[in-house]
Amino acid sequence: MAVDPTGADLKRFLAEDPGGPVVMLNLLQFREDGIASYREYSERVGPFLAKVGGEVVHAGNLSTALVVPQDWPWDAVLLVRYPSREAFSQMVADPEYQQITGLRSQALDAAVLQAGTTWGV
Questions:
Q1: Where would I find the DUF1330 domain in this sequence (predicted)?
Q2: Distance CA 112, CA 119 (A)
Q3: CATH dotted code for 7-62+73-116
Q4: Residue 68 banded pLDDT, cuts 50, 70, 90
Q5: Three-state SS across the chain?
Q6: What is the widest separation between alpha-carbon atoms in the chain?
Q7: In the beta sheet, which residues pair with residue 113?
């Protein structure tokens, strides 16, 4: 399973932009030895988030499953809010950010990275 978006994924992400803030859902399945690498990535990504106005809304391990498919493989969940899809795209295109993405990639066996919009309730 892929753990990083492709260039085509990012083009579609921007083309389907409804405008406004975006919350990125990250479901993470770690490799057996991947937690240390992901921890380092988490420590180093902060300045890049701040640069584009992003913020971590929630980060943590998943525990008791109540209603999920039997083959649910996820270890952790991360929610990150960005002021726009463009802000997210600027961050991932930053050459300095790209130097640390390998830490994330090598940490994960599988991932979901999905954009969410606020309902305005």
A1: 36-112
A2: 21
A3: 3.30.70.100
A4: confident
A5: CCCCCCHHHHHHHHHCCCCCCEEEEEEEEECCCCHHHHHHHHHHHHHHHHHHCCEEEEEEECCCCCCCCCCCCCCEEEEEEECCHHHHHHHHHCHHHHCCHHHHHHHEEEEEEEEECCCCC
A6: 41
A7: 26
Q: Where are the domains of the chain?
A: 7-62+73-116
Residue matched to tokens 């406004």? 20
What residues are paired with 60 via a beta bridge? Answer: 77
Q: What is the mean pLDDT of the chain?
A: 94
The yes-or-no verdict on residue 121 having pLDDT over 70 is: no
Residue 91, Cβ density class (10 Å: 0-12 exposed, 13-18 middle, ≥19 buried): buried
What end-to-end distance do the CA atoms of the chain give, in Å? Answer: 35
Pick the closest to residue 73 from 20, 116, 112, 34 (CA basis).
112
CA dist 115 and 99 (Å) reads: 23
Interval 86-100 mean pLDDT: 97
